[in-house]
Amino acid sequence: MSARAAERRDNDTRLATVRPGKIERRGKEARQSGAAHANEEARVAEAKSSREPGRRPAGRSEATEKREAHARQRHDDPAAALAEYRKRRDFARTTEPAGTPSARRDRGAGARPIFVEQKHAASHLHYDLRLEMGGVLKSWAVPKGPSVDPAERRLAVMVEDHPLEYAAFEGTIPEQEYGGGAVMVWDFGYWEPDTGRQPAGGRASDKEKSKAPGVRAAVAPAPEVDPDSAVEAGALKFILHGHKLKGSWALVQMKGRGDRNWLLLKHRDEEAQPGYDVEEEAPDSVVTGRSIDQIAADARGGSDGEK
Questions:
Q1: What's the pLDDT at 183?
Q2: Are 189 and 126 in contact (CB under 8 A)?
Q3: What is the per-residue pLDDT for 219?
């Protein structure tokens, strides 16, 4: 078996490990899923509007409805969301997954949405935060990595959506390919919307705005808005249940910096660790225990040829 085929097999095996149903259960049970909550609220809103024909439910603008319709369209067609991802890669050369419809079906309707934080030694070392939404992994490149210190604000650049199978990818991308370099599964687990931190009316509070200078005064997701719509609106608050990253976080789009530039913030909660450098203290793979240099060295040992 070639080293490339062995790497694909190992990544397939890791995918089963990464699925939230298989990981070690830590912390409290997740709150009811945001999707279930959104469906219930939508039914209530629809019932109200049916009693008052032609009237839009209170607190919902035409722009909000358009954003949600766009998010639903992407959710129903994850293949379209992966078009940019596939266009950038030659799957005859890279062992990165192309993405298959079966991966979405295998997740099941009641599965908790996964997240993965990958360490990526491309032209510059950085981290990639990926959150499962709408059958794909919404992705942000975080140049300095996540910080568990609430005083730190980290740039997070939105990149193309990735397939669900990418959550298990640990290995190397050929140097001549897009993003060439070693990739590590630095942390993984499941995530949920932090509905407890959503301010009334769905708008970012003055206190929240003051914590993040330069962040646009975006419409934050109200409890009835699903995560896709929250991202469309430019503010997502969420809880991570990982091995290294836990507790409440926020992704907030920056003002006047284009659509791709966001800030990743750690909320002040029991999982916050002021002054702690989680990248320095826990640098290795949560799946294999390898360092980024070991992953690259393993590739140099024969990933492009026969063992």
A1: 98
A2: no
A3: 46
233, 221 Cβ separation under 8 angstroms: yes
246: helix, strand or coil: strand
Asked if 180 and 173 touch (Cβ cutoff 8 Å), the reply is yes
Query: CA 182 to CA 201: how far, in whole Å?
Result: 44
Which of 13, 304, 285 lies closest to 127, judged by CA? Answer: 285
* Contact between residue 117 and residue 186 where contact means Cβ atoms under 8 Å apart: yes
Beta-carbon contacts of 196 under 8 Å, excluding residues fewer than 6 positions away, are 31
List the beta strands (DSSP E) in 194-285: 235-242, 246-253, 261-266
Q: Would you state the pLDDT for residue 288?
A: 97
Distant-in-sequence, close-in-space partners of 5: CB < 8 Å, separation ≥ 6: none
- With CA atoms as reference, report the closest residue to 136 among 179, 165, 111: 165
Tokens of 72: 């639903």
pLDDT value for 31 = 34
Q: Which pLDDT does position 80 carry in this prediction?
A: 86
- Quick one: the chain helix, strand, coil %, rounded to 5? 35, 25, 40
DSSP letter at 135?
Answer: T
Strands 171-173 and 153-162, sheet pairing = unpaired
**Helices and strands in the chain: count of H runs, count of E runs:** 10, 9
Rounded Cα gap, residues 221 and 234, in angstroms: 9
pTM score: 0.71
Give the pLDDT score at 105: 59
Segments of the chain scoring below 70 in pLDDT: 1-77, 102-109, 198-225, 302-307
* Strand stretches in the chain, DSSP E: 114-121, 125-133, 136-142, 153-162, 171-173, 181-193, 235-242, 246-253, 261-266
Output the pLDDT for position 162.
97
